[in-house]
Write a structure and sequence with these properties.
The protein is mainly alpha-helical and 126 residues long. The chain has five helices and two strands, in the order H-H-H-H-H-E-E. The protein has two domains: 57 residues; 38 residues. Helix 1 packs antiparallel against helix 2.
């Protein structure tokens, strides 16, 4: 009986160190950019940096760069389905006022939940 053993590729330490440094740099960029107001570009910049960071983690730390194609298909499928779910949710929320005028406005709902606030001394007030 012969058994085939497949060996998992272990990347050199330089890949992990390089990825770690890149993630630290991108975190620095995220914090630096958050100090400025770019209007509607804030979310675009944040998502772009987060996507690059996610790619680095998936590729190098999780090893998808050297892994079988099946695992890559699973990860890409998850991302696609999350996108589909978000698209349906955003389509629902953005078109509510078109079909039911009552749903369009902001509603003042009297909630039984009481807001707890702190005064200057740090004491809680109900």
């Amino acid at each position: 009986m012969s058994q085939e053993h497949s060996h998992h590729f272990v990347p050199p330490l330089k890949y992990y160190v390089g990825t770690f440094i890149a993630l630290l740099f991108l975190t620095f960029i995220t914090v630096f950019v958050a100090q400025f107001h770019f209007g509607s570009l804030n979310i675009v910049i944040a998502m772009l940096v987060a996507s690059i960071k996610a790619y680095l983690v998936l590729s190098y730390f999780m090893g998808l760069k050297w892994d079988d194609g099946v695992n890559i298909v699973v990860v890409v499928s998850c991302i696609v389905f999350i996108g589909i779910f978000l698209a349906f949710t955003l389509a629902d929320v953005s078109t509510r006022g078109e079909f039911d005028p009552v749903e369009k406005g902001v509603h003042n709902i009297n909630s039984p939940v009481k807001i707890i606030s702190k005064d200057a001394s740090g004491n809680h007030h109900h």
